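REQUEST FORM: STRUCTURE PREDICTION
Request ID: SP-0412
Submitted by: Lab K.M.
Chain count: 1
Length (residues): 181
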Amino acid sequence: MKKFLILAAAMLLAFPFGSCSKLDKLTQFDLDYSTSVTIKSATIVNLNTPFSFYTPPVTTNSESELEVNDSRKDLVEAIKVKELKMKITSPPEQTFDFLKSIKIYINAEGLDEKLIAWKDNMTDDGATEIDLETSDDNLKDYILKDSFTLRTETVTDQVLTQDTEIEIDAVFWVDAKILGI
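STATUS: Completed
RESULT:
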């Protein structure tokens, strides 16, 4: 009888929550960041040679973003890139056909640069938007800083005849501790 009462109490306690994975979902959320870069037409002159350009600093507002999601910096266990997309915003007829490959690195004060996204062997398919493959690294230390920058390393196989503006949209998945434990 005692075992039955203990089992019944355990089931009643588990009922409102369903399972630990459901509890985990309550403390997982996404943070969206967007930045843009302009590639000057005259800057890329050596085809098939890596060329880097930097985004302006991206302010994270991590404390307020975490607060909106009922969390705090000290409760964050992991932050990972969920998706990273690039879209040409100008000129309207420009495509990513000029790219052969691209790598995106994240930088933040006091931390080493880290590769977070890439796309190799790009084809000339007229795309104006691309999805990059992303790393599974924990970027918590970068995103919890006040700001970060992205360095984009490209290899081109065509000459750009016009300045090209590119929007970079990143979604970071955040996993915080459950109830602070």
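NOTES: The mean pLDDT is 82.
Reviewed by: T.R.
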